DNA sequence: GATTGTCAAGAGCACTGCTCACAAATAGGT
DNA sequence: ACCTATTTGTGAGCAGTGCTCTTGACAATC
């Protein structure tokens, strides 16, 4: 069926496919605008349709449901954040792990500040009843992958302390707890280091979430200068935890 | 007007006032049930009215609007969490700051696990358009107050290192950033310590949020034993940051 | 016993996600 | 060029939402 269409060069992609693609993008753009303006909560299918000048029911030709639209937006947001972190990290000299770590942290915060509602779309309250489909896990781990790579790499370069920790019940339990992530991480890196890395990772998002959700109000002075100074002091703390 | 009512002893509180109080509590209870079942997002005034067997419009005699109800629920949640943390901390010997810190962390996590939706009500995505009224700030800081007290107290007991940090531009900026919280905190405690304390505080909520929103899926083994082992390892890290 | 303030109910407005039957546009094969 | 099958758009409609306003009933006060 497609064989002939492809052969017919000029209409390799049909007008329909092109239109479909165009409208699909327009729907997503309108949705992103709406989310940026007032959050995912108030994302309205009808409002998108109005914006695009089409019947409210027509939207459902492009996205099966509101949830499906949301899923697509979530994946895109993860990708956008991942791209931002990756490109910021890539700009730093390879032999400066501390600098690369700093770059990732600042990239995450910058992206979050510039896209608050998209940030909360992925790191905010989980939507009740909404089960994250499998497609979201890949993009979701881009930032984490970056940090794990950094952790492993800098661990290889570090002189082995060969400090075999005493096998207490606690360390054994931690070892079992880390089993799932172990599947994808070098065995060179110790349980303690891996756990520290994860902890710093969640601390990063805790810090960003606190700033974005206004929990720092009346605690840290408003304004980018102060907020950034405090964030920098936090990064120093995390670097110390990772002994960098 | 009330003068006579009060004088009439037996009916100091009228039947009306009592009924009103009873229904008010019933509305709140139904609302909490609904939130526990499916989150704040899907809290419905009509559903509450149905539950209580009254007309949908009658609810508005008790709460001016959905937002007003939400505000009351938020305050109650902050109080509930604060109470949980306080009573857990109070059970630990006064001369064991590390133990008291651990108790607070575990209390926060336990409360969050037992009241996930209420947790996200206060530490999740801020509701767009919803401005937290002034009444919420008091209860909101109960856990933080507890930790700051601990920080100050244990700092007094610690031998002064009198390490006057070099006054770099960064330390000066951090000092300015911390101005708001300084208003309510002893000057004995240094900027660096205060910032570390805050950072650990947000890390705690970052860790709890990560666990509750499923970000640890495929990372840390499911089940309370593993989750708790990982959480304990995080507490150890935070204790180290605070040099306890 | 009359008055006054309070409360519940019902109807209604404007909105939401979503479905369905139908009409228009476009595709492919003859 | 024609015919048929698929795809896209439409409008009506269902069931739900928060919220308002009027109306009638009742309890508390005088």
Detailed description of the structure:
2 copies of one chain form a homodimer. With 244 residues, chain A is mostly helical. Helices cover 66% and strands 0% of the residues of chain A. Chain A has 12 helices and no strands. The first copy, chain A, has helices at 2-7, 15-38, 45-52, 66-90, 97-114, 116-123, 137-140, 142-157, 169-177, 179-182, 191-212, 224-241. In chain A, α5 (97-114) runs parallel beside α11 (191-212) and α11 packs antiparallel against α12 (224-241). The longest helix of chain A has 25 residues, at 66-90. Chain A is globular, with a radius of gyration of 22 Å. The N and C termini of chain A lie far apart (59 Å). Mean pLDDT of chain A is 89; it is low at 1-12. At the A-B interface, α6, α9, α10, α11 and α12 of A face α6, α9, α10, α11 and α12 of B. The structure holds a DNA duplex (30 and 30 nucleotides).
Give keywords.
DNA-binding; mainly alpha; disordered N terminus; 244 residues; homodimer
> How does the helix and strand content of chain A classify structurally?
mainly alpha
- The proportion of strand residues of chain A reads under 5%
Uncertain spans of chain A:
1-12
Helix fraction bin of chain A: 55-70%
Shape of chain A: globular
Largest sheet of chain A: none
Number of helices of chain A: 12
Radius of gyration of chain A: 22 Å
Query: Span from first to last CA of chain A?
Result: 59 Å
What is the H/E order of chain A? HHHHHHHHHHHH
The oligomeric state of the chains shown is homodimer
The chain-level mean pLDDT of chain A equals: 89
> Using DSSP, what is the number of strands of chain A?
0
Question: If interface size is counted as residues with C-beta under 8 Å from the partner's C-beta, which chains form the largest one?
Answer: A-B, 56 and 56 residues
């Amino acid at each position: 069926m497609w064989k002939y269409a492809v052969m017919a060069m000029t209409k390799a992609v049909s007008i329909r496919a092109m239109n479909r693609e165009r409208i699909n993008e327009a729907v997503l753009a309108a949705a992103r605008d709406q989310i940026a303006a007032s959050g995912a909560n108030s994302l309205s299918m009808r409002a998108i349709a109005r914006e695009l000048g089409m019947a409210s029911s027509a939207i459902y030709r492009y996205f099966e449901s509101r949830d499906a639209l949301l899923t697509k937006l979530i994946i895109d947001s993860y990708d956008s954040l991942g791209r931002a972190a990756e490109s910021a990290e890539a700009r730093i000299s390879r032999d400066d792990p501390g600098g690369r770590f700093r770059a990732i942290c600042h990239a995450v915060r910058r992206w979050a500040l510039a896209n608050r509602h998209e940030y909360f779309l992925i790191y905010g309250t989980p939507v009740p009843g909404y089960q994250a489909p499998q497609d979201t896990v890949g993009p979701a781990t881009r930032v984490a992958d970056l940090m794990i790579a950094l952790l492993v790499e800098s661990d290889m370069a570090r002189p082995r302390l060969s400090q075999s920790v005493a096998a207490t019940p606690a360390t054994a339990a931690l070892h079992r707890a880390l089993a799932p992530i172990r599947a994808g991480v070098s065995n060179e890196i110790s349980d303690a280091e891996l756990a520290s890395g994860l902890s710093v990772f969640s601390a990063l998002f805790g810090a960003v979430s606190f700033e974005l959700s206004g929990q720092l109000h009346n605690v840290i002075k408003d304004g980018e200068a102060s907020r950034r100074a405090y964030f920098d002091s936090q990064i120093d703390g995390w670097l110390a935890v990772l002994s960098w």
